[in-house]
Design brief:
The protein has 104 residues and is an alpha+beta fold. It is built from 4 helices and 6 strands, in the order E-E-E-H-H-E-E-E-H-H. The chain is globular, with a radius of gyration of 15 Å. The protein starts with 12 loop residues before the first strand and ends in a 7-residue tail after the last helix.
């Protein structure tokens, strides 16, 4: 069997916190990963309330912020991979979420 055919999980999350500057994930194996919030535009531009409302999905392998339409792979965090979302995609999301007074 080719080693590329073997799927392994790198990490699973236990707890998540978001500050104005960073996303911190505590893993079930005791590790903690901290990344710049700028890696994830939805979190960066979300309100504190939206950022605090998260839950673990896929057997703790992904983190979801339903109010921000953001899902982040725990493995990608461990591997140092920022969001792959394009600027165009983020712009469409932010314009769709803006209130009428913000769109002027």
């Amino acid at each position: 069997m080719n080693s590329l055919e073997i799927a392994t999980r790198i990490a699973t999350a236990q707890y998540v916190s978001v500050t104005e500057e960073a996303l911190t994930i505590d893993h079930t194996d005791g590790r903690t990963v901290l990344v710049a919030l700028g890696w994830y535009a939805h979190l960066l531009h979300g309100t504190p309330e939206e950022s605090e409302y998260w839950h673990l999905i896929e057997q703790r392998e992904d983190i979801r912020w339903p109010d921000l339409y953001e899902d982040i792979s725990v493995d990608n965090l461990v591997l140092g991979k920022p969001s792959g979302e394009s600027q165009c995609s983020f712009k469409l999301w932010s314009e769709a979420c803006a209130t009428p007074t913000e769109q002027t």
